[in-house]
Amino acid sequence: MQKLINNKVFRYTWKTIKTIISIFIVLVIGVIITQRVFNNNVAVFGYRIFTVATGSMEPEYKVLDIIFVREVEPDTLKIGDDLVYMGKEGDFQNKIITHRIIDIIKEENNFSFKTKGIANPTEDPIINEDQLFGKVMYKSKVLSFINKIINNPVGFYLLIVLPVAILIFLEILDRFKEKEVIVEEDGKE
User: Would you give the distance in Å from CA 129 to the centre of its chain?
Assistant: First the structure.
């Protein structure tokens, strides 16, 4: 076992694996924090990340899917595009909604949109361009899968808590190994 631990290839591989796991955990936690803390009011390079909260867009987007939304000019949107917007009326008030454009109304230089969830029987109240977060550009299957696991208490433990605990434990072991090597080197001199 000591030979394996002292093997340079093994140590390099082990450090690479730890680094990849660490980066993965930081990215997942970063996405969660960005969504929760900033309430999606922060765009990075013109993109925002949202979690689908209801089944109104099924089968296109399922509950807990992660979607990437890009800020766009209203005049570039067309019927059939999926929008994310802040609701201002009725049941939609102060809720972030992801629905599909079914009609576009242009009055002078202002655009309004009629939208509807794919699975919904009725259309939404008319949306003004100032309500838009942007257009759905991409649904991440990997992040959606991870998000569904994390939103389950057992999955959260297995995907976040356990790997973090293992990384901390392994880091402590590495520190002890480094001290042993230093002590052994000091003893040989």
Answer: 25
